[in-house]
């Protein structure tokens, strides 16, 4: 009985380590990202990683206490990146590359 | 009977582990890849595949009706909202000029942006307003 339980605990603990490492790398991308759109994508992935971490915690402890939080994150996690892409990224200065169309007049 | 429950538990733990590993792979791709579109390509791996594997693992370990329904709803909402955000981010990246046009094989959005009126419901007065970009 104790052998497979130990295997389960080791696997889920390794999963938690992977999730924490993913979060650290995503924080690096959020702080470093050259444009606001990179930060928007990184924030969107960060919500998914938080859901995965809460799922790993629920699988470890076998409780469903954090399921409403996961549901709300899955439902509302995309609004931040949509807001950034819709309203904030327009103010972001483009990089030194050429515009694809070249004829679009943006002020 | 208890052996089958133990097998189900271990399968759930393996699925959670695989989902977390796929999350880590996708995030490594987000750090390493150079462009907005390629990062968006890498971002879909943790969002859909890794998260669905983690949710399947949790469902195998919990095994009660209400929890299964909640987990199915979480996966459904993640599948619904992921493409919306990715589409808006990619469109905004195109409009702010962060995509090199020479590397695209097909560029249908350029014709729709530079010739207003071809697209239904996108007149020139709407093009100058706040509704676009």
From TrEMBL, chain A:
It holds the Pfam family MrpF_PhaF. Keywords: Cell membrane, Membrane, Transmembrane, Transmembrane helix, Transport. InterPro entries: MrpF/PhaF-like (IPR007208). The keyword Membrane applies. It is a multi-pass membrane protein. The keyword Protein transport does not apply. It comes from the Bacteria. Its main location: membrane. The chain crosses the membrane at residues 6-28, 40-60, 66-89. It is found in: Cell membrane. Belongs to the CPA3 antiporters (TC 2.A.63) subunit F family. This is Monovalent cation/H+ antiporter complex subunit F.
From TrEMBL, chain B:
Residues 113-133 are annotated as: Disordered. Pfam families: PhaG_MnhG_YufB (PF03334). The chain crosses the membrane at residues 12-31, 68-90. Keywords: Membrane, Transmembrane, Transmembrane helix. InterPro entries: PhaG_MnhG_YufB. NCBIfam families: CPA3_mnhG_phaG (TIGR01300), PRK12674.1-2 (NF009314). Belongs to the CPA3 antiporters (TC 2.A.63) subunit G family. This is Monovalent cation/H(+) antiporter subunit G.
């Amino acid at each position: 009985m104790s052998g497979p339980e130990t295997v389960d605990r080791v696997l889920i603990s390794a999963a938690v380590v992977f999730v924490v490492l993913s979060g650290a790398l995503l924080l690096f991308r959020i702080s470093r990202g050259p444009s606001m759109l990179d930060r928007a994508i990184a924030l969107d992935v960060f919500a998914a990683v938080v859901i995965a971490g809460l799922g790993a915690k629920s699988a470890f402890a076998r409780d469903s206490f954090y399921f409403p939080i996961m549901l709300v994150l899955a439902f509302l996690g995309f609004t931040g990146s949509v807001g950034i892409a819709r309203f904030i990224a327009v103010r972001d200065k483009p990089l030194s590359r050429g515009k694809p169309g070249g004829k679009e007049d943006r002020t | 009977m208890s052996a089958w429950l133990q097998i189900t538990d271990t399968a759930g733990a393996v699925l959670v582990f695989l989902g977390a590993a796929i999350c880590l792979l996708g995030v490594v791709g987000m750090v390493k890849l150079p462009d907005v579109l390629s990062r968006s390509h890498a971002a879909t791996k943790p969002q859909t595949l890794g998260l669905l594997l983690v949710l399947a693992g949790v469902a195998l370990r919990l095994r009660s009706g209400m929890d299964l329904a909640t987990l199915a709803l979480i996966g459904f909402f993640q599948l619904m909202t992921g493409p919306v955000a990715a589409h808006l981010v990619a469109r905004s990246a195109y409009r702010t000029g962060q995509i090199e046009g020479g590397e695209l094989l097909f560029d249908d959005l350029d014709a729709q942006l530079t010739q207003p009126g071809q697209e239904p419901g996108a007149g020139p007065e709407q093009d100058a307003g706040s509704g676009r970009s």
